[in-house]
TrEMBL record:
PANTHER family assigned: PROTEIN MAIN-LIKE 2, PROTEIN MAINTENANCE OF MERISTEMS-LIKE
Any GO BP: meristem maintenance
Name listed for the protein in its UniProt record: Aminotransferase-like plant mobile domain-containing protein
Compositional bias segments (type: Basic and acidic residues): 8-24, 473-484
InterPro entries assigned: AminoTfrase-like_pln_mobile, MAIN-like
Biased composition (Basic residues): 485-495
Domain Aminotransferase-like plant mobile residues, every copy: 141-453
Transmembrane segments: none
Region (Disordered), start-end ranges: 1-69, 465-507
Length: 507
């Protein structure tokens, strides 16, 4: 019996092995017949879509150096996309920007008579009336093109042979005579919704919702063209003048028409000056929300808005593929650039920007490029407002160092410690941009930092250093020659500043 059982177990084991081999063979045939699964689809990232509007973090440089450019990219990590790198390679020598300038529109704008106190008193109280005097009929495209080629977005400064310079809050205050204190514009994105735009047009401009929607469809967004806005302004002005002469008209209607007239006028004014976009054909309706209460218009920081708006367009224009340039461009430190003549009727009580009228110049930047390459220190006026301080005193907020913004989509660095010579001080080695303007801040934390600038975001007296005698003095760096204890002391001081601040860069 033992033998038969063992024999049957052997036969059963052989049958199981044959069945397993047969099933493995069939499984292999099925696997060979089925095609391999397709690889996952590679989706191309849309770099134009931004998920957040906070100040960007400093990216690591893709390359280590550029011909004719900085050798240390810790300060300028995006230099590879800069137009200067392409110019050095000879790739866009024929480039010139089309600079938008609605100045003629503002200069030719029809205004009520001076005896209309209800109009001019409120325009004066808004703090924006000086913008009527600082508009030019001509803008030198070649001049602006050459300067944008030397603009660096990471530092918010022009990198010139004589050092760094920029347009500061103090420049805005003296050149335009508008406020550089108060609340910053904190709208999200670059525009409002269609429904919000229709509501504002009807309630704030006396412009019907149906007509507003037609205008939005025509302009392909929540925008109002300059032509339509001028029509709205004139219609409200005529209705207001007719209503105030009508004894049967109620006072509320008269005041409503007057307010709509003033809002349309001011929106036209800031759209053609501070917030000139690359199209120069329309005004973004989002700015109307800050004109809602006419009594509170002067509480907004229009100077910082306009400066951030201009910085943003300088950042774009410093990239090689940009063809148009917007923003409100003013710079008073280079008298030799641009043909201009003095306004004989200018008085010192007016903004410095109204002192000269520029003439039409060449649209190509060749001569200005050569002139900037050969710039000497004595060709620059570092602090040109000394004779204007009685009219426009220096404000402490001008020492603010950090982020400025025009809504959550336009956030730019304002780094005063890199341009101390423009404030009459000896230029020292500045901190890294990421230390002065910390990354990861949003529009709310930026507003808090601006309001509390005296606590942290402030160029202190120690950081300012000594006053400059000639206006162009700088602190000696580590590579400068010297001897004795004086040299050792200065080098130690510079090293300490550098260690606290991180890489300071040499760009």
């Amino acid at each position: 019996m033992f033998y038969s059982i063992e024999r049957s177990q052997i036969h059963n084991t052989d049958d199981e092995q044959e069945e397993e081999q047969r099933s493995d063979a069939e499984e292999d045939q099925v696997n060979e017949a089925e095609p391999p699964p397709p690889p996952p689809k590679q989706t191309k990232r849309n770099w134009r879509t931004t998920t957040a509007r906070n100040p960007p973090k400093v990216a690591k440089p893709q390359v280590t150096e550029f011909g004719g450019g900085p050798s240390d990219l810790s300060l300028l990590p995006s230099f590879g996309n800069h137009v200067a790198a392409a110019l050095w390679r000879g790739e866009c020598g024929e480039r010139t920007l089309k600079c938008m300038n609605p100045g003629k529109r503002i200069n030719s704008l029809d205004k009520p008579e001076n005896d209309k106190a209800w109009f001019w008193d409120r325009v004066e109280a808004s703090g924006l009336r000086p913008l009527l005097k600082t508009n030019y009929n001509h803008v030198g495209s070649g001049l602006l093109t050459a300067f944008t080629e030397r603009w660096q977005p990471e530092t918010g400064t022009f990198h010139l042979p004589i050092g760094e310079m920029t347009i500061t809050l103090d420049d805005v205050s003296c050149l335009l005579h508008i406020s550089i204190t108060g609340k910053m514009l904190n709208h999200a994105g670059t525009s409002c919704t269609m429904e919000e735009g229709q509501d504002m047009c009807e309630e704030l401009l006396n412009f019907s919702r149906e007509d507003a929607q037609k205008e939005f469809d025509k302009m392909k967004g929540v925008h109002v063209s300059f032509a339509k806005l001028l029509e709205i302004y004139h219609d409200n002005l005529n209705l207001a003048l007719a209503a105030e002469n009508n004894e049967d008209e109620v006072e509320e209607t008269v005041e409503f028409l007057r307010d709509c007239t003033i809002r349309a006028f001011l929106l036209y004014l800031i759209g053609g000056t501070l917030f000139t976009n690359k199209s120069a054909q329309y005004v973004d309706l989002i700015f109307l929300s800050y004109l809602q209460d006419i009594r509170l218009i002067n509480t907004w920081n229009w100077g910082a808005y306009g400066l951030a708006y201009m910085y943003n367009y300088l950042d774009r224009a410093s990239r090689r593929r940009c063809g148009n340039h917007g923003g409100y461009n003013f710079f008073a430190h280079f008298k030799r650039y641009g043909q201009r003549f003095l306004d004989k009727n200018y008085t010192n009580e007016e903004p410095v920007g109204a002192k000269y009228y520029p003439l039409k110049t060449d649209k190509w930047p060749y001569e200005t490029r050569t002139s900037l390459d050969r710039m000497e220190v004595d060709e620059v006026t570092f602090f040109p407002y000394e004779d204007h301080r009685q009219t426009r005193p220096f404000q402490d907020i001008s020492w603010y160092s950090g982020w400025i913004m025009c809504g959550s989509s336009m956030i730019c660095p304002h780094l005063l410690e890199r341009v101390l010579r423009q404030y009459g001080h000896v230029q020292s080695i500045p901190r890294a941009p990421g230390v002065s303007a910390k990354a990861g801040m949003n529009q709310f934390s930026i507003q808090d930092a601006f309001d509390e600038y005296l606590n942290e975001n402030y160029v202190t007296e120690e950081m300012r250093g000594p006053r400059a005698v000639h206006g162009y003095e700088t602190v000696r760096g580590k590579r400068d020659s010297g001897d004795g204890k004086k040299k050792k002391k200065k080098k130690k001081k510079s090293k300490t500043r550098g260690e606290e601040a991180g890489p300071s860069g040499q760009g």
